[in-house]
Amino acid sequence: MERLQTDGKFFRAGEDRVHVRAVTYGPFPGGWPVSFDPDFARIAAAGFNALRLYQMPPPHLLDAALHHGLRVFGGLKWASSMDFFRRPELLATARVDLAGGLRDITGHPALAGVYIGNEVPADLARWMGPAKVRETLEELITLGRSLGPHLLFAYGNYPSTEYLEPENADFTAFNVYLEDEPALRRYLRRLHHIAGDRPVVISEFGLDTRRNGEERQAAMLSAAIRLAREEETAGFTAYAWSDRWWNAGAEVLDWDFGLIRRDGTAKPALAAVTEAFASSPAPPRSVPRISVIVCTRNGRERIGGCLEAIARMTDSDFETIVVDDGSSDGTGNFVHGHFPEMTLLRLPPGGLSAARNAGAATATGTILAFTDDDCEPDREWVSRLRRVFSSGRFAAAGGPNLPPPARSCTEAVVSSAPGAPSHVMLDDEEAEHLPGCNIAVTKEAFDAIGGFDARFHTAGDDVDFCWRMRDAGYHLGFAPGAFVWHWRRPSFRAFLRQQRGYGRAEKLLLEKHPRRFTANGEAIWHGFVYNGGPLRAGSDSIIYHGPMGLAGYQSVVDRMMPLRGIDPRFDSPRARCSLAFLTWLQPRVRAWERKRIWTWRSPWTCKRAPEPGREIELWSEAGKTRDGFLRDLLADGWKPGGPTDDWDVEKNGTRLLLATESGDGPGKRTLVRIWGDFTPDLRL
């Protein structure tokens, strides 16, 4: 069994793309079964190709999984639902258990990856500090990767802590329990923007048949599998294999999420899942022909990779047009000799926009798809772009621009630096801007707005184009799976030269669109600017928790999404210093070229740490949690805080924050932090 690897927004094993179809397995009352073969045979026959566990797998489980063609994602079981900063021995135990659990199995071919945690409770994450919790998760991933560098690592997140995405995870994993199809579709689209560059996996999805019925479970699981595929996720995990479930030191008898009952008989959901996995996605209602247009100037050394990638694409109904914009290095002859099946246009030097317009004039397709000679489109790029147009809502579409795996420390730093072409999203589906290296547009809309403005010779043409598209009433869609590998500049000098060019292009944009810029010459965006990094909280982040931290969906409030992290293979203090310098210098270089402005304003801000409060603990044998205490406090005249406050309730100038730890047994410990002189009456 070949190792599972990330492949842009998806997974692959060798050269084959793999969609992970997993089911959660265990923990069971009484421990593991004597033999795994009966279960694993049924799991494989149902169409699953992976298992998700909540503990590290023993070697004989991996052997059985390998025999049945199943990959295994292990899980680190540790006290993540307790305040592990107040009791550092809990975190130390987690590190020891991770190292010990991997020691004997890290080389097993069936082990695909490890979840280093699952659903740190939202109230505890807020209590301990979101940035500190995220950094702890990242430390566990770093430890795991040092022991198993070939394995995939992730954290099982959920909507109430969207802000906890580890920067260094290999994929974004979310446990999602939405029983409404439109709501689920919308949230799957959101997850791609939370994930940034990396794949999205639904790490849990299920339905309790005790409350919803078996037929409803079957229908919803079937729909969720279909939606996960349509919304371009890299994997789906059904929760759970069996109704038999052991949690918090006891057998759970009042929830029935399994595909099979406690006696081992199949529920209707098992057949529904099998059928859903076997079905093929519905073809688009119409199949418009696409013309792929690649413009190049002196790209002899890089265009080969671009055109080879286009030749490997799985879609068949498209043509490729290469526009040579007056190259002097033999680019045209290279294309003619190595890719004779592609249409080649040789032009005198006229600039990027003029070259793109010439390619569009030659195109026979009803959709024009543009990319650059330093990009390598994914094998499914054309087919995934085409799907966006099938609804008729969008006149343009694009996807992410991902940096290929870095080959040096310099490339790793440049890939993480600001200033790369990126999309700007008005919401989770509609874009305000799409970079010209990954944009497709209907020929009708292209002609209606007059194509690209030829005054933009090297950059800025895509920004002007998208603004004019929107001014004309057209909408721009986004396809998260339609990615291109976009090589970044190979040196710091080349990177800064590129940023100078972008600044000069912004000067032209400012002259043409003055209302879209601030007085300081900075572009005004109405949407969120995406920079490739996963959504995550920093020490100065403002987080929407909802009043008293009770919002079901809690996220970072920011108009600029995080930058990519440095490739772990090249991460070092020197690399981080270089990245910090480029992050400081890049906007100043562009501002100078744009408006001859040099600013000393720091891009970093510091949020003053809150004053430490008094802390008390409340133990309830009956299992009373923060929800019960909050109800009592509200009844006693305490007032809830605002949606972004880091405290729950206030009265007479005293503020309280509450969190409840979860451990084995019915008893619960609630932690209370008090700012002020007044001591509340908290009755057990």
TrEMBL record:
List, in alphabetical order, the Gene Ontology terms for molecular function in this entry: glycosyltransferase activity
Residue ranges constituting the Glycosyltransferase 2-like domain according to the UniProt record: 291-398, 434-521
Which EC number(s) does UniProt give?
2.4.-.-
- InterPro entries per the UniProt record, alphabetical: GH, Glyco_trans_2-like, Glycosyltransf_2, Nucleotide-diphossugar_trans
Pfam family of this protein, just one? Answer: Glyco_trans_2_3
Q: Does Transferase show up as a keyword for this record?
A: yes
Keywords, A to Z? Glycosyltransferase, Transferase
Source species, domain of life: Bacteria
Q: What is this protein called?
A: Glycosyltransferase
